[in-house]
Write a structure and sequence with these properties.
Layout lengths: L5 H13 L4 E5 L2 E16 L3 H12 L4 E4 L11 E3 L6 E3 L9 H9 L4 E3 L8 E6 L4 E2 L9 H11 L17 H4 L2 H7 L6 H7 L11 H7 L2 H9 L3 E3 L5 H11 L3 E2 L3 E6 L6 E7 L2 E12 L15 H7 L3 E2 L1 E8 L7 E5 L13 E7 L5 E8 L5 H15 L11 E7 L5 E2 L2 H5 L2 H6 L7 E3 L9 H16 L1
Parallel strand pairs: 2-3, 2-13, 3-10, 7-16, 13-21
Antiparallel strand pairs: 1-2, 4-5, 6-9, 7-8, 11-12, 12-13, 14-20, 15-18, 15-19, 16-17, 17-18
Length: 468
């Protein structure tokens, strides 16, 4: 009997399970040869943290769903590296979760256990270097953040609505529109700035962002969890397990490695989405759509955006955020290095650049977090990481080590934001007004903040209207 490679058999099985090209559909004046046509109550665009949560909740509520995901796994920014030599997992993206009833119920639903975790350096000693030169920041002494955090919390408490979304009062309070650097100086929060900067990685230069965005990312529940030590992670310290379990529940309703080719939301009974999958084009007839991906125009080719959607989405700017592992850094296995600007405002690191290099418990590997005020090419980021790591090496001690980027993930586009003037002029009021229009509901980081636990809560508030 003739044998076939396993990948051929797998592709054949996938084609047979989802159909083959037998029909043509016309969408927006174009003809598409489709391998399958499906009907779903809800189509979820994006299988990241928010899209996965929405799909599980809607399926549990009895709705048929389809999830369109551009890569080969669920979870978005939740990426876990398993060291092949030791089997030790390292959470390179989402590391911790809030201790709330919603989080506990969601993990229990997917049969993934949780344990408490601190946010300390994991036992490694921390040194402070200016990564521009590689030199130790000898004049820098870490401040006690407690007084600044207490004062920050007192100001934050004035605006409880920032914890749940962008439903702002108008006129928008002036302090929310201040650049965060000016806000810090206005309320003498300097002692807390390095701590906040380290926690709010990915937001770019937070000194220049409107305070609103920092309040949302470093909010009241974060302060509560810092005070109580109440952060959670999976018991096996592999946060990817949540999404493996979700994938098992959703099964063939997830279309991996797939992209939207075109969309028409003008139909009377359903919207039509043509999706390119590894086994051919699929026509999806969707009664409703949940949109969870970054709403950047260059991310939305093929989408039938309305005038209002286009007008709003084109105003978004985004930061760049990258994470992964460096091998052979030359940094001792008991040491983590934090990037400090020796002569910058608040001693904040100069971006684009590394926030720091941290130990992960695996000899020879350090975790990196890298940020910028805008999107950067992967090649540029990798080159800059290696150059900065090399500058940290000490002549006569470890300068012979040749670092390499062992694992690399791009979380770009990351923080989607607009100017203080746009916020003042009602940008978010107009953005919220899109909810439910043209069969579409919006969630994800741009509609709240980059925090899985908070995004699940935000999405939960949308579920009743999606189900209606």
């Amino acid at each position: 009997m003739k044998s076939f490679p396993s990948f051929v058999l797998a592709s054949l099985a996938a084609i047979l399970s989802r159909g083959y090209a037998t029909s043509t559909c016309d969408v927006n004046g174009k003809h598409y040869q489709v391998a399958d046509t499906i009907s779903r109550d809800v189509c979820v665009i994006g299988g990241g943290s928010t899209g996965t949560y929405a799909a599980i909740r809607l399926k549990d509520a009895g709705k048929s769903v389809a999830v369109i995901e551009k890569v080969d796994q669920l979870g978005g920014h939740t990426q876990t590296y398993i060291d092949p030599a030791t089997g030790v997992p390292v959470n390179l993206g989402v590391a911790v979760f809030h201790n709330t009833s919603l989080v506990l119920e969601y993990f229990a639903r997917l049969n993934v256990s949780l344990t408490s975790i601190g946010i300390s350096g994991g036992g490694a000693s921390i040194v402070y270097n200016d990564f521009r030169t590689g030199l130790i920041a000898s004049n820098y002494t870490p401040s006690n953040p407690a007084p600044g955090l207490a004062a920050y919390g007192a100001q934050l408490a004035k605006y409880p609505y920032v914890e749940t979304g962008f439903d702002l009062p108008y006129p928008v309070p002036e302090d929310l529109l201040l650049s965060f650097g000016d806000f810090v100086e206005k309320y003498s929060l300097q002692s807390a700035m390095p701590f906040i900067y380290g926690f709010a990685q990915g937001l770019g230069d937070i000194s220049s962002l409107p305070t609103l965005y920092v309040f949302k990312n470093f909010g009241s529940d974060i302060l509560r969890l810092i005070a109580t030590g109440g952060f959670l992670t999976t018991t096996l310290h592999n946060n990817g397990l949540l999404y493996q379990s979700a994938q098992a529940v959703l099964g063939k309703d997830v279309y991996f490695n797939s992209t939207v080719m075109t969309m028409d939301r003008s139909g009377r009974d359903h919207a039509t989405i043509v999706v390119k999958t590894p086994t051919g084009m699929v026509e999806m007839q969707c009664k409703k759509i949940v949109f969870t991906i970054p709403p950047k125009l260059n991310n939305l080719h093929g989408f039938d955006l309305s005038h209002n959607e286009t007008k709003l989405f084109q105003k978004f700017k985004n930061t760049g955020y990258y994470t992964g592992l460096v091998r052979n850094s030359g940094i001792p296995d008991n040491t983590s290095v934090t990037n400090i600007g020796a002569d910058t405002r608040f001693n904040s690191p100069t971006l684009p650049g590394l926030y720091g290099l941290s130990q992960v418990g695996i000899p020879g590997l350090v975790d990196f977090k890298y940020g910028g005020a805008s999107s950067l090419s992967d090649a540029f980021v990798k080159q800059d990481i290696l150059a900065a790591t090399k500058r940290l090496q000490v002549v006569g001690k470890n300068e012979s080590a040749e670092p390499e980027v062992a694992v690399f993930y791009s979380h770009t586009p990351f923080e989607c934001h607009v100017s203080a003037e746009e916020i003042k002029n009602g940008f978010y009021k107009k953005l919220i007004a899109l909810q439910g229009q043209r069969r579409t509901w919006y969630t994800g980081g741009a509609f709240h903040t980059h925090d899985s636990s908070l995004l699940w809560a935000f999405t939960e508030e949308l579920i009743p209207s999606i189900l209606a």
